[in-house]
Structure prediction request, 258 residues.
Amino acid sequence: MRFTHVARSSWDIMASVIIHRPPIVAPQMTAIEKRYAAVQSQIEKENSLLNDYEIKSKKDQILLERKAKLEAAGRDLSELEGELEVTNQMREQEWQNKATQLAKRYKFDDAEKIEGDVDEKDEKRLADKELVLVVKQRYGREDGYQSPWQFPEISTRQGEPLRQSAERCVGELLMGDVSIQGNAPISVFTLRYPKPMADAKKKSGSKVFFYNAILGAKTAIKLNTTEFPEYAWVSAEEFVKRVPGTDYRSAVRTSFLQ
Prediction:
């Protein structure tokens, strides 16, 4: 009888998922960008011919002036019937009302609220920036342990492909429309265990393989709060301040490239 020996790795192999929430609205322009846009708009206005919308706006203005004169003279407005139905001015007022509603809903007209006066557990905060999900993880322990801030991760099973482990991380620990990008990890982080821990686990440490993932539009994400007692949606700047370990941050820096 012949036996096949399967060599076990001296490392714990982990699959980690970096879940990105793309910007919901376009970022606000800087002061220089606003000045440049104003100059370009003025140049374009001076050099361009009138388009259909601008021609109609001029016709609307003439009709409105005629209407005002007829009303002032107490005359019948029947001669303008069919000409003043929906003016561009009415359309612009409707658009302005919708813009005001959106600004109030997403608070992107209030710089202070955009910069952080929103619950960090709300994936809709900082609507003009890309966010990532960071967590404190228990790894199934019941002794009160919590990891430092990091990305969600899960241990691979024997013979399980890394991509499948990443999908299991999303499926078992998170609920929501999350799409993993690509079959290969974007980076790996090596963590060496302290000697007592290495001796107890008979492992040199862990190797964490990172996958990028995108949170679907118009969807909320629900986490297993037993496994993740704390979580937050953070920007790239907040990530650097919150997540400890320069080696860990360096391992995932490519995930923040725009």
Q: What stands out?
A: The chain has two domains: 11-25+119-256, 31-107. The chain is about 35% helix and 20% strand.
